[in-house]
Amino acid sequence: MVKEPATARHSETNAPGDTASLAAGADRSAAEWQRDTAPTIEEIEALAQTAFEALPEQVRAVCEGVVFRIEEFASREDLRAVGARSRYELLGLFAGEGIAQREAGSYTGQFPNMIYLYRQPILAFWFEREDTLGAIVNHVLVHEIGHHFGLSDEDMQRIDDGPD
Questions:
Q1: Does 120 fall in a domain?
Q2: What is the 3-state secondary structure (H, E, C) of 25-62?
Q3: For residue 23, is it within any domain?
Q4: How many other CB atoms sit within 10 Å of the CB of residue 39?
Q5: Please, are residues 91 and 7 in contact by the beta-carbon 8 Å criterion?
Q6: pLDDT tens per residue across span 37-92
Q7: E strands, 2-113, where?
Q8: Which of 31, 70, 83, 103 is most buried, most CB within 10 Å of its CB?
Q9: Cα–Cα distance measured from residue 44 to residue 137, given in angstroms and rounded to the nearest whole number
């Protein structure tokens, strides 16, 4: 089984920008800020669901059977497996066998492919950026779906960089 991470190091160079979110926050009163709390797992899940539903139908169809999970942090085992130096470094993880790596035939007894998004690292990453939380969740989700399609981090970096 392959585990492919979305890390803060990688996502740092790829996350889309949105300075409008900062300007909108400047218009909020101190009382409004005092009522706010960090988004919950359920709210991050709702953002991920919205991002997934916005993907083209062909992409969603190929993701049939993939299990999506939102957790606070990656497990120590997964952090070690991907060489993360901090539990805040790993924003998402694909666990399973990419479509390109599968052989033809059915796989009885095999665990489903899983995509994990990690709430606290995503929130920490968001705190340091001018991006919207929705844009970051979308970026990490699409990155992990790319691993489901069999793309490596290097493949996705080349796509992000565009033609030479």
A1: yes
A2: HHCCCHHHHHHCCCCCHHHHHHHHHHHHHCCCHHHHHH
A3: no
A4: 17
A5: yes
A6: 899 999 999 999 999 999 999 999 999 989 999 999 999 999 999 999 999 999 99
A7: 2-7, 67-71, 90-96
A8: 70
A9: 8
Burial class (CB in 10 A: 0-12, 13-18, 19+), 96: buried
pTM: 0.77
Q: Is residue 94 part of a domain?
A: yes
Structure tokens at 12: 């740092």
Query: How far does CA 158 lie from the centroid of its chain?
Result: 18
Burial class from Cβ neighbours inside 10 Å (0-12, 13-18, 19+) for residue 36 reads: exposed
**21 occurs within a structural domain:** no
Q: Which helix (H) or strand (E) holds 114?
A: strand 114-118
Domain count along the chain:
1
The answer to whether the beta carbons of residues 158 and 134 sit under 8 Å apart is no
What's 58's domain CATH number? 3.30.2010.20
Domain of residue 74 covers: 2-13+38-99+113-159
